[in-house]
Amino acid sequence: MTQYFAFLRAINVGGHTVKMDHLRQLFTAMGFSEVGTFIASGNVIFTSSSKNTSSLENKIEDELKKSLGFEVATFIRTSSDLVRIATLQAFPQPALDSATAFNIAFLKKALDDGQVSRLMTLKTDIDDFSEYDREIYWLCRRKQSESTFSNAVLEKKLGIKSTLRGANTIKTMAEKFARNAV
Length: 182
Description:
The chain has helices at 20-29, 53-68, 79-87, 93-98, 113-120, 151-158, 167-177; strands spanning 2-8, 33-37, 43-48, 74-78, 101-106, 127-132, 135-140, 163-166. The longest helix is centred in the N-terminal third of the chain and has 16 residues, at 53-68. The chain has a four-stranded antiparallel β-sheet. It has a four-stranded antiparallel β-sheet with strand order 6-7-5-8. The model has no long low-confidence stretch (mean pLDDT 94). The chain has seven helices and eight strands. It is an alpha+beta fold. The protein folds into two domains: 2-81, 2-Layer Sandwich (Alpha-Beta Plaits), CATH 3.30.70.1280; 83-177, bacterial protein sp0830 like (Alpha-Beta Plaits), CATH 3.30.70.1260.
């Protein structure tokens, strides 16, 4: 069995409220085991015998739409993925130390060259970006409320769905839950 982490987009925003115990029940009903959640923002930990993350994403999205009545974009990572994401040095340490916020956007697939170019046009004196594999790392140098960047801006600019999580959340999840990470 492989351990997976599902990052669900907008599970508890826009008038939708899904309790984490109900979400765990839905994942268990989908045939997953060792299902758990971390904070009430759509972070689900589970195991599955499937090795195809794309098929898992599709299955979860389809089942959640049937059960909840609205679309929930799903982004799956393995334990090793999560450890890599949590420990990747996306920016120089002095920049990280002076930042007020550091977030990670999860994507379905790596950006193509055109998307990377469009992403870099979003850089400002407040916001900086780095991309690696299927993630975008967003460094905010001042209060996020002073930034014009958001997940909606990112999705519109790149023409893809994504979901954001704080880097500290990802680090905590990797330390607390990731197992068998190579």
